[in-house]
Amino acid sequence: MSSQRRRLVIVEGGRLQRSIQIAGAALLVITLCALPYVLEPFRLGQITQACIYAMVIVGLNLLSGFAGQISLGHAAFFGIGAYTTGVLITSYDVAPPITFVVAIAGSFVVGVVVAFPALRLKGIYVALVTLAVGLIFPAVITRMDQLTGGSSGLFGISYPPPDAAYFAGFDGTVYFHYWLAVIGLLLSCLVVRNLVRSRFGRSILALRDNETPAVIMGVNRTAARTLTFGTSAGIAGLAGSLFAVTTGILTPATFSLLLMLTFLAGMVIGGASTLWGPVLGGFVIYYVPQWATDLSSINGSQNLAGVAFGVIIIVITFTLRSGLAGLGRKLLATVVLVEPRQPRRVPQGTPSTVARAAGPSERRLPAPSPTGPANHLDRTGVGSTDAARNL
Amino acid sequence: MEWELLMTRLVQGIVNGAVYGFLALALVCTYRGSKALNLAQGEMAMLCTFVAWSLSNHGVPLLLAIGGGVLLGAGLGGVIERTLVRPFGRDAEYPVLIVCIGLFLGINALAGVIWGGDPHAFPALVPDAPDDYISILGARLRYQQLVILGALAIVVTALYAVFRFTRLGLAMRASASNPDSAVLVGVRVSRMNALGWVLAGAVGAVIGPLIAPSTTLSTGMFFTFIIYACAAATLGGFDSPIGAVIAGLVIGVTENLIASYVGFIGDSLKLAVALVILLIVLMVRPSGLFGSREVERI
User: Fold this and answer.
1) Would B119 disulfide with which of A78, A144, B73, B218, CB 3.0-4.6 Å?
2) Do B93 and A383 touch (CB under 8 A)?
3) Of A125, A127, A306, the CB nearest to B109
4) With 0-12 CB in 10 A as exposed, 13-18 as middle and 19+ as buried, what is A280?
5) Residue A197 burial (CB < 10 Å; 0-12/13-18/19+)?
6) Does residue A330 sit in helix, strand or coil?
7) Higher pLDDT, A349 or B213
């Protein structure tokens, strides 16, 4: 057993963990600032697109990971954001930041509206509702061709960078897009992280893992479901806006069935119901097809990536429910042991069986599982309903 | 003239509906046993159609080649059920759906790797020249379309006969409606579920070569059909085979009539009509027209 080996013990919330977190954050900021100087603009543009994909998956993960409601419609929310920004900029000359807000609001509202039929439904029926919405979207865009350019596409969406020396010239535009995408991604990660760790997050986890008791315990199902849908769609919408301004061209064919399935694939590969997995997933679904094209010059080499995705998703569903993020955590667990936070000491004089049993000499209460995380309920992974049930 | 247009639209709708019904039937076959929505059903059918095409290119008679495709479809369905679906057990809709999405992406891309992304012409079973049609009240029904309708009728009749009159069919119905009790009386429930997948794979593989002459053979040929099939299966009720076929026909006719008589919809929003039907059904009556309502005991 790995518990026999000596592992670095980190107490959750302790000074060591804090300093590691701060060091990690500092490293992240330094890397993000250094990348524009290290990489050529072309590579930086790739990172920008990967970040945008990652944003969609971060949003998707809130709904399909943490809330356990599978969505096949996120390409539509992504597209709603993209087309809102695109149409507002090209036809009405609205300032781009305002269009972002409108795009988020628009996707949020559509998300909430979609949530209503999904409220009474479960499992594949929710998937069907979102699938329908996801597929109606490109058809409607094609039909409203006077506004959206129809199937030939919407051109000339641009967000001129602010007047600063850093953002000057062609490279400056690339830097600007890069920073937009990075900040957007960090913001969405932060929103999802805080939501999931709040009362709201616990209620959606409870609804996913065992709905009826959760409702009996006072979880407001309607509010939780609609808000999750809305927020998840809103994040995808913001990603869409950024997609519109960074690529400059939108066609309805982009927001296809294949794109939605690829987003889901990214979520599963990166790690459903994990905080950082979706970011990994976004980079995987962006970069793997690129590498596949680089690797071989045969016709349809893009397809090799598709085959790889298909196989990887199936393998992950079987063996590694929490994806790459879960794999990372497992590997880390062989060298580092994170101990749960110590409970606060019970104030003296309060009648508490726990305090009496522990006695005054023992300052620390025994941790729930000192030997390892065996009893720890794993709430990550695909369709975690049964992940929780199996334990 | 008006009359002729109506009849033409009607016939077109019925033929399209037959295709939707066919694929919906395959979805229902898998859903009844495994409670899984096999999104990869269309891709499996596409793969079988490609195999049939390759066989016929290598000199195998077309009918035999299609038979080969159907055998492959049946085998594929069985293998997928045994290796990728059954291990999750019952009540595992989410992981199974993810597996099906993996299959969708994987099979679609695999076909692209093997046969390339360009569409191919697929030979028709019956003469398919411009004037090979019979006239029904002014509408033209092409021989190939007649074959599709005939195939649907045969498959539905055969399935109905099996479900209704044989011991095997009884066992399949029992394991679909109450797996626990079925096991207790000696029905091999998991084998019945596998049989559902085998049937679904075969049914899908029948429809592929029949529509391929008109849609042309390509990796994306089933993208829209699978959506229509989902809509049809929902409207009919996910556990009712006959409902799936009827709903397929209803959706085919409705969307064609709406597309031709409602100016705003036109041909470009045809798919949206089917999807709106799907949404309405899910909001009003999630169990569909012919499906059994699921009651849960708490």
Assistant:
1) B218
2) yes
3) A306
4) buried
5) exposed
6) helix
7) B213
